[in-house]
Amino acid sequence: MASATRPRAADTRLDLVDVSWAGFKRMLKVRGDRSSPRIWYLDGSLTLVSPSLPHELHSRRLGRFVSEVVTELAIPCLAVGATTLSRADLKVAVEGDEVFYLANAERIRGKTELDLNVDPPPDLAIEVVITHGAKKAMTIYRRLGVPELWVCTPKRLRFYRLGADGTYAETPRSLAFPFLSAEEVFSWVSQPHASLESEWTLRLRAWVRDELAPRARAGGRPDGD
């Protein structure tokens, strides 16, 4: 007898068209302080995404990875999570999986609200892709001027850098953390979830302290790069 195949966990996604900016703002108000669904807006197209468990597990690990690196290396950082990033004049809005201010952290220290008409865009945004593509999110981040984007699927992590021509190009090393490669980060994020996250974090913390930090302080790059 053939064994049943367990369906893969999927994000829940709803796309709406011909939504005005006022309609987008009303949707935010209706959603309120709840963390889900996350909302994207691009040129009148509104997307609502409720992340699956695999999505959230990958997202949290990526956020924890960045947190451990900036803490050990004393890199200025402000994590803004899934804060709504929007520009009415550009007709875009996005709530990322993990978003960080690094080079511009001091410029928004102490702020309780972001106004991207005045404030700089985040330095790094992370998007996890389980069952939908990243094209829409990349277009939004590109218009907002986010200089670095990480896109993570169940099989691979890609680093993208915003070029002078205003488009993203894949790059083997991080812009914010030039001592890191996408493959190296993914090797941690993709580890099986059989162990507790606290155990995984302790292993990561030891690796960052004992292996990554000395390399970074010496100006080294990932092996083979």
UniProtKB/TrEMBL annotation:
Domain Putative restriction endonuclease: 24-187
Highest taxon of source: Bacteria
This protein's name: Putative restriction endonuclease domain-containing protein
InterPro entries, per database record: Nuclease_put_TT1808 (IPR012296), Restrct_endonuc-II-like (IPR011335), Uma2 (IPR008538)
Pfam families the UniProt entry points to: Uma2
Coiled-coil residue spans: none
